[in-house]
Task: structure prediction
Amino acid sequence: MKHARIAQLAFVSLALVAGSAPAAVIFNNDFSNDQVGMLTRPGNGVVTEVEAADDFSLTSNTRLTGATFTGLIPLGGAGVKTVRVEIYKIFPADSGPFDNKVPTRVNSPADVAFKERDNAGTGGLSFTTNTGLNNQALNSVLNKDIVFPPQPPTPPNSNPNGGSGKQLGQQLQIVASFSDPIDLAAGHYFFVPQVELTNGDFLWLSGPRPAHTAIDPTDLQAWIRNDPGINPDWERVGTDIIGDKDKNGGTITYNGAFSLEGTVVPEESTVAMLIAGLLAVGSWSQRKRA
Result:
C-alpha cells in the first residue's frame, strides 16, 4: 500500500509538469504598421524561393504550439495553398564560414533552418485565415531587390533609395497551429513564415520596432534572401536593401508582424526535484500513519 501511494504521487507530479498548462501567447508583435511588405514564399520549380525573417527571444525552454503573422495578398483576394513556418538559429550556428558576398552576417539567420512545419510535405501544421480590409505597404522588397552587392535602384522609382515601392492589397492574417509542437531551448531565434497563394504573392507586413512596449536592445532587424540568388547568405531589409534614413541620419530598420503561442517546459532538473520532493512527502506521510 505504501509503495502504491508513492507511485501514485510520482504519477501525479509527472502529470503536473508534462504540458498540462494551457498554451498562451509568449511573443506578440503582430501589429502591422504598413511601412514595408516583404515577399516570402516557398519555391515550386516555377518561382524563386524567398525567405523573410525576424527574431524573437525565449527565456525558458518552450514548446511552440502556434503562430500568427499578417501580410498583404492581391486585391480581389487569393487562395492560400501552402503555409510553412521555419525556425533558424543565429549565425554562425548551423552555418559555414562567412563568404564576404554580403555586407555582413553578424546577427543574421543561420545558413539552414533547424525546425520547420508546413501543411504539405513536412506536415505538422494546419491554418486558418482572417481577412481584413484593403490596405497598402508604403514600400516593398521583392525578389528583384535581393541582389549582391545591394544596388539601390536608379530613378524613376517610387522610392528614392531601395525597394520596389508602394504595394496595394488586401490584409490577411494567417493563424497556424502546430499539431507537431516545436520544442525550443531558451535562446534567440529567427522566425520565417512562407506562403504560397493560388495567384500572386504574399507580402509579410512590418511591425513596430523595437518589439514590445519597452526598448529591447536584443531586438534584431528583419532579414531576407532568395534561392537561387544569395542563398545561403542574407541581407538586411532596412540597412542593405531599402537604406532610408531617419531625421538623425540613421538607417531605418524593420521588424515583421507576428506572434507565437506555446507553453513553458520545465527544466529536467526542476522536474526531478519536484518528483523527489513529492515522493519524500509521500514517504513521510506513510511513516506518520504507521
In short: The radius of gyration is 23 Å. Residues 106 and 136 are 31 Å apart (CA to CA).
